[in-house]
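User: I've been trying to design a sequence by hand for this structure and keep getting stuck. Would you show me what you'd pick, starting by listing the structure so we're on the same page?

Assistant: Good idea, let's start from the same input. This is the structure you sent:
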């Protein structure tokens, strides 16, 4: 007869006789609804406390091992024959597992209250440990716990009999009002000639909606222009913007589920591109600096149509002007681009669209930056200026065409046939008072100037 210790609680006696090995085990301890591993390597689960006797549990070592040369036991071996089996008689004491339901008395959001009380089941012989995000909270060993910060909470209960249960997790959302959302880029949608504000979703906070603000005509004073639900694409089109006219500055805020608005984000400013006639057949480009992130360089695009522009060159982020010395003949279109170094991912469907911020498109047919009136007068003669609406334009060279634009870049007058006339009276009395831009083409080239209608 040989005697083996299988565990600190299990003692098994083996009896070797012809064709069979038998064993008798001592008491196992287990907990309800948790597996108890038996001497033969199998496991059982009981849902009711009590004393159980699992007799006639046998195992054929030859079938398991595929060979009958030996049976391993704690580093030793026990020989067997083809018909050898081992029989276990396991007695199991099942103790009740602690009841562990987690109760929340204040909801899932820290809002207008300082804390939320969590609690669990109580009973004699229970020992508690609360955890935050899987880590034990020092000193949190009562049946209840007052939550003061967001995170995932659980409670672990250990009974005097050694049975352990862990509650289901309970997620508490912290106060998001001290977290400011951030704008990714502000750019121009040239298809509708409006600005688009783009941001990335703020995860992990109870955001109800986002608020978009635009700077007014007073520096650093912003007005609310719209809102966007949290579950919508994180883009907003400012339908009241006109990128051809000016640059705009925007800030972003968020409203949490408590109805409070977060601090506003860092401001972002769009790029406004203007064009003017340079010396000879050249075009001067000027733009304002983009604001919102550090700009490494500005990319300059050029083309004979808005849809056919390709990158002409790039300049340092410290520059905001460029002269195109070799423009192609005809109407030329330009646009400025700046790339966000951190990237921009408002959603998985639109990530590739908003990698960069772009300016308005400016063309040589509508120059928005003009020369001084005195300079214009050296090239041709326009009088009276200011005018009540009617004025005369003359030139020592042959007049070929005249175009007049308002400050929005809209063409309000055009004439292409002067029939060799050296001068012509123009009538703008049907136009509102304001500043207009005249583009004159004569035998010497293209000239621009300012007209004031009073």
């Amino acid at each position: 007869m040989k005697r083996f210790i299988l565990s600190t609680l299990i003692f098994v006696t083996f009896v070797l006789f012809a064709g069979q090995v038998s064993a008798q085990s001592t008491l196992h301890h287990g907990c309800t609804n948790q597996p108890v591993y038996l001497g033969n390597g199998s496991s059982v689960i009981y849902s009711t406390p009590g004393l159980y006797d699992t007799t006639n549990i046998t195992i054929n070592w030859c079938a398991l091992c595929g060979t009958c040369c030996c049976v391993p036991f704690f580093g030793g071996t026990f020989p067997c024959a083809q018909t050898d089996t081992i029989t276990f008689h396991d007695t199991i004491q099942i103790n009740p597992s602690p009841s562990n339901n987690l109760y929340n008395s204040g909801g899932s959001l820290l809002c207008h209250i300082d804390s939320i009380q969590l609690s669990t089941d109580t009973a004699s012989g229970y020992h508690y440990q609360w955890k935050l995000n899987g880590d034990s909270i020092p000193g949190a060993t009562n049946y209840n716990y007052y939550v003061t910060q967001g995170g995932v909470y659980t409670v672990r209960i250990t009974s005097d009999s050694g049975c352990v249960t862990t509650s289901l997790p309970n997620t508490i959302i912290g106060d998001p009002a001290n977290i400011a959302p951030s704008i990714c880029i502000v750019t121009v949608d040239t298809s509708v000639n409006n600005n688009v504000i783009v941001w990335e979703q703020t995860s992990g906070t109870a955001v109800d909606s986002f608020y978009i603000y635009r700077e007014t005509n007073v520096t650093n004073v912003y007005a609310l222009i719209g809102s966007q639900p949290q579950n919508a694409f994180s883009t907003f089109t400012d339908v009241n913007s006109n990128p051809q006219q000016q640059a705009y500055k925007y800030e972003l805020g968020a409203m949490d589920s408590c109805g409070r608005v977060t601090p506003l984000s860092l401001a972002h400013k769009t790029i406004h591109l203007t064009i003017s006639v340079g010396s000879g057949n050249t075009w001067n480009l000027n733009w304002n600096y983009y604001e919102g992130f550090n700009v490494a360089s500005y990319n300059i695009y050029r083309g004979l149509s808005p849809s056919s522009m390709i990158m002409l060159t790039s300049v340092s982020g410290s520059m905001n002007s460029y002269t195109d010395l070799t423009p192609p003949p005809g109407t030329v279109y330009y646009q400025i681009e700046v790339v966000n170094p951190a990237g921009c991912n408002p959603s998985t469907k639109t990530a590739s669209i908003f990698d960069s911020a772009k300016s308005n498109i400016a063309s040589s047919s509508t120059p928005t930056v003009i020369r001084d009136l005195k300079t214009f007068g050296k090239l041709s003669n326009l009088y009276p200026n200011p005018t009540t609406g009617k004025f005369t334009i003359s030139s020592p060279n042959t007049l070929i065409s005249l175009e007049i634009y308002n400050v929005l870049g809209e063409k309000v007058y055009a004439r292409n046939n002067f029939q060799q006339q050296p001068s012509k009276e123009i009538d703008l009395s049907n136009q509102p008072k304001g500043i207009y831009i005249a583009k004159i083409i004569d035998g010497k080239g293209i000239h621009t100037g300012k007209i004031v209608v009073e």
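That's my pick for every position. To get oriented when you compare it with your attempt: Helices lie at 61-65, 373-379. The radius of gyration is 41 Å.
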